[in-house]
Amino acid sequence: MFSALSSRRRFSDLSEQEVLALAISSEEDDAQIYRSYAHRLRADYPATAAVFDGMASEEDGHRQQLIALHRARFGEVIPLIRREHVAGFYARRPVWLMENLSLESIRAEAAAMEAGAEAFYLRAAQATGDAATRKLLGDLAAAEAGHQKSAESLEKANLSSEGRSEEDMQAHRQFILTWVQPGLAGLMDGSVSTLAPIFATAFATQDTWTTFLVGAAASVGAGISMGFTEAAHDDGVLSGRGSPWKRGLASGVMTMIGGLGHALPYLIPEFWTATTIAMIVVFVELWAIAWIQNRYMETPFLRAALQVVLGGALVFAAGALIGGG
């Protein structure tokens, strides 16, 4: 890693031709990023995709202007220099990471790209003592600022408030389908299904360590089972529920959390203290489930609370009776 970093050129060591070549390659990279965003969003968010198509065209236009300037000043051969060759140059997020970005995150990423480029060129212009280089860097900063204004006008032209609202609603719906629903199912399963074995073991043995081991095993096992089941039963292509691995991760992790929540108190050696805390944790878990149902699934809070608390109470009672018997 050290050798890779040490091989980078400092921006202050670049010639005017190299700075111009760097600007050309950066404009080309940014246009490709915007086209990738547009391709990624076109099916679900066509208006935002149109914005990014327009921004890519803007970058193409600036790149062509820079190439014309380079041809006039330095000739046809453009040096091969990219932002990763220059120490301290503003970085771009790898395009393959955009699969994990939300709609708002992609919009914010695009704004950060333009603002970061402008700020970099302004700082570079202030650091140089050469008048021609200062002018060139200042022109590049102004171009990046112009990109931001162009982006705003493109968004107004292609993305009305109604269209943006619809896309935001679609993004929220996708978030619920991919993360909230599987996570809620996992939390309910982990919180409710582990009540019986944990409390049955607790009342049967009065041994907190044994109860913890049973609870931890039940929680981890249930988490793995729920995660793989969620990921395997629906690939998300037809249902539109999103990546199976994201849903499996949400379901599996929340299942484990739901079970471990009332297993961890049994790390306390004193039985009744551990059991009391575990009961309080169960109460918090059940009300959290009811809140999530009300907040994201639009289930009336009282109905959600009644369903969850009643179900949890029945499972707890079953575990206590079996263990106490």
UniProtKB/TrEMBL annotation:
Keywords: Membrane, Transmembrane, Transmembrane helix. GO terms for cellular component: endomembrane system. It comes from the Bacteria. One of its GO terms (molecular function) is metal ion binding. InterPro entries: Ccc1_fam (IPR008217), Ferritin-like (IPR012347), Ferritin-like_SF (IPR009078), Rr_diiron-bd_dom (IPR003251), UCP035918_rubreryth/DUF125 (IPR017040). GO terms for biological process: intracellular manganese ion homeostasis. Residues 18-154 form the Rubrerythrin diiron-binding domain. It holds the Pfam family VIT1. The keyword Transmembrane helix applies. It is a multi-pass membrane protein. The chain crosses the membrane at residues 274-292, 304-323. It is found in: Endomembrane system. Its main location: membrane. PANTHER family: BLR7895 PROTEIN, RUBRERYTHRIN SUBFAMILY. This is Rubrerythrin. The lineage of its organism: Bacteria, Pseudomonadati, Pseudomonadota, Alphaproteobacteria, Rhodobacterales.
